[in-house]
């Protein structure tokens, strides 16, 4: 069986994950030395880290696809 699909749209902010800096360090295995943007393994976009607010935020994109199954 083969799946075919049509792209119906892009959502640039599909998944928003706010966590403390400590949680992000545990999750990624990285150390964040200061505020800024950091590339994390397996992430499509950088994590924005803000030490003043003790928060890192990941905003992940997604693509909507309609699939048609053919046999």
Topology:
Elements: E1 2-19, H1 21-28, E2 36-38, E3 47-50, E4 55-70
Antiparallel strand pairs: 1-4, 2-3, 3-4
Task: Write up this protein.
This protein has 71 residues and is mainly β. Helix content is 11%, strand content 58%. The protein has one helix at residues 21-28, and strands spanning 2-19, 36-38, 47-50, 55-70. The chain has a 4-stranded antiparallel β-sheet. It is elongated. The model has no long low-confidence stretch (mean pLDDT 91).
Q: Structural class, from helix and strand content?
A: mainly beta
- SSE run: EHEEE
Overall residue-averaged pLDDT value: 91
**Structural shape:** elongated
Give the % helix. Answer: 10-25%
Strand order, sheet with most strands: 1-4-3-2
What about the largest sheet? 4 strands, antiparallel
Rounded to the nearest angstrom, the distance between the terminal CA atoms is 5 Å
Alpha carbon gyration radius: 17 Å
Low-confidence stretches: none
Number of helices: 1
- DSSP strand (E) fraction? over 45%
Total number of strands:
4
Question: What can be said about this structure in brief?
Answer:
This protein has 71 residues and is mostly beta strands. Helix content is 11%, strand content 58%. The mean pLDDT is 91.
Question: Which labels suit this protein?
Answer:
71 residues, mainly beta, four-stranded antiparallel beta sheet, 58% strand
